Amino acid sequence: MDFEALWLTLRLAVGTTAILLVIALPLAWWIASGRGAGRALVQSVVALPLVLPPTVLGFYLLVAMGPLTAPGRFLIRLLGHPLAFSFGGLLVGSVLYSLPFAVQPLVAGFESVDRRYLEAAAGLGATPRKIFWTLVLPMARASLLTSAVLTFTHTVGEFGVVLMLGGNIPGATRTLSISLYDLVQDGNYAAANRTALVLVCFATVALLAIYLLPSIRKQDGRQADIVR
Amino acid sequence: MEGRPTLSGSLLQVQMRHRVGGLALDIRFALTQPWTVLFGPSGSGKTTVLRAIAGFVRPDDAAIRFGDCVLVERGAGVFVPAYARPVRSAAQTAMLFPQQTVAANLLYGSRWSSRPEEEQALADELLGLFRMTGYGQRMEDELSGGERQRVSVARAVFAAATRDESTLLLLDEPFSGMDVALRDQLLTELREWLLKRGITVLSVTHDVGEAFHLSAEVIRIADGKVAQQGPVEVVLAEERRRLLEQLRGEQISAVKQSPA
Q: Could you tell me if B56 and B174 lie in one domain?
């Protein structure tokens, strides 16, 4: 079992989730409250990683980060090294690859909030920003949890983008799923099995969290009612 | 402009043309009294007018101003968003924020967050006025429908009262479905309370009794137009006569039916 790969995978997943929540909250709110062609276009672009082969996304990112393109050359000059084949490059790839998993649950959650609450708040003089933080987000908190958990687990399990973009550098870009692939190539099935089990555990715990937490919270609420 | 209300010094001037469903609204009026009631049958467009003033409806063509503030001026492309208007409103459905207590709901639109003692005193005062003393810590699902409606109105009143600038309060059927004795007491006290603070009110009702009890100015809306505007005794005289006749008829038939 490759603990260095486990540690790297966790860092990647936590980093990706944190970055994506910051990006996805405003993006999802914009999609949920927008309409027209602009909204459809943004939605399609956000959903693209769901249908594209990860290798295609990885390939274009590799090209974009490399010395073949102007932005790539600019990045190399800025950082002093290519972004590809580094942890930073992996982070950028993961953020794009997991974007739909972060955004789509939030859009669904925001859209399910009754507009009449937002109107009531605006009628009390609340700014859109205040309405978002005090009403929309608390009302959609279950989808915030779903978004975070899905992003985290999806990043833990990603393979194609990592392989294309990061290669297989221990401590920098070798994640658990890559390590698993390596172990099988070497014929080390015992170690491969342990690695695979860890990945299964991640996924199971994450799904349990999504399905269990809301019902626990509901019970808490009921007990609070009785106490009061 | 031709046809524009020209009453100088009026508080609110509304001129709007708007199509909703099969109804073509062509509304012009200006408020002259601190409490004015929009009166008309359901489906006559009263709520749409209120929502346009609040900023939730973009009229096809409109010029709406309150005092010196231009809220909507279609020709000049002005449309002030709802939250930035000197207007506070309560819709017909209570829509209390379900994750918050009654007290938190009341304080939601407060402008006095830097003065917590005064805020608390005002909350207590309004809870008392609306006959809800001791309800501050309750949640929405512990209230009856009528109680929710009272909190919703109190919440808008709170938001209006904590503004330093002059404010227009819009109330859509604020006391529909409330028992009449309580409603009449509440209306009288609320009217006094708001008058003292210089808050202008435009409310919607289809209840003749409510309009009379407020002794308000009445704007009668029919077929998408302002049919009449004036003191309640004048505008709703016919409705009142019919209502009294009906009442007398019921009394007579009750007397006839009772065994001699």
A: yes
Gap from B51 CA to chain A (nearest CA, Å): 10
Judge if B53 and B109 occupy the same domain: no
Residue A86 DSSP SS3: coil
**CA A213, CA B239: separation in Å to the nearest integer?**
58
- CB-based burial of residue B9 (10 Å sphere; 0-12 exposed, 13-18 middle, 19+ buried)? exposed
What is the rounded average pLDDT of the residues A10-24? 96
Q: Are residues B109 and B178 in the same domain?
A: no
Between positions 98 and 127 of B, the ones with CB within 8 A of A are 98-99, 108-109, 111
CB contact under 8 A, B54 and A126: no
- Identify the domain containing residue A168 by its residue range: 3-227
User: B190 lies in a domain?
Assistant: no
Q: Same domain for B29 and B147?
A: no
CATH code for the domain in which residue A55 is found = 1.10.3720.10
Q: What are phi and psi of B221, to 5 degrees?
A: -110, 130
Q: Look at the block and give the residue holding tokens 């609070």.
A: A224
Count of structural domains within chain B: 2
Q: What is the pTM for the complete model shown?
A: 0.84
pLDDT given at position A218: 56
Q: In a mutagenesis test of the B interface, which of A114, A124, A130, A132 is the best target, namely the one with the most B β-carbons within 10 Å?
A: A124
Put simply, the answer to whether B97 touches A119 (Cβ < 8 Å) is no
The model's confidence at residue A96, banded by pLDDT at 50, 70 and 90, is very high
Cβ–Cβ gap B99/A138 under 8 Å? yes
Residues B74 and B173 in one domain: yes
Which tens digits make up the pLDDT trace of A149-198?
Answer: 999 999 999 999 998 888 888 888 899 999 999 999 999 999 999 999 99
Cβ-in-10-Å burial (0-12, 13-18, 19+) of A191 comes to middle
Q: Which amino acid is present at B70? A: V
Contact B109 A124 (CB under 8 A): yes
| Shared-domain flag, residues B76 and B173 | yes
Query: What is the SS3 assignment for B19?
Result: strand
Neighbour tally for A139: CB within 10 Å:
19
Q: What is the CATH number of the domain that holds B39?
A: 3.40.50.300
Residue owning tokens 């491969």 = A192
Domain of residue B13: give its range.
1-86+167-182+196-232
Whether residues B20 and B66 share a domain: the answer is yes
| Contact: B108, A139; criterion CB under 8 Å | no
Indicate the burial class of A60 (C-beta count within 10 angstroms; 0-12, 13-18, 19 or more). Answer: middle
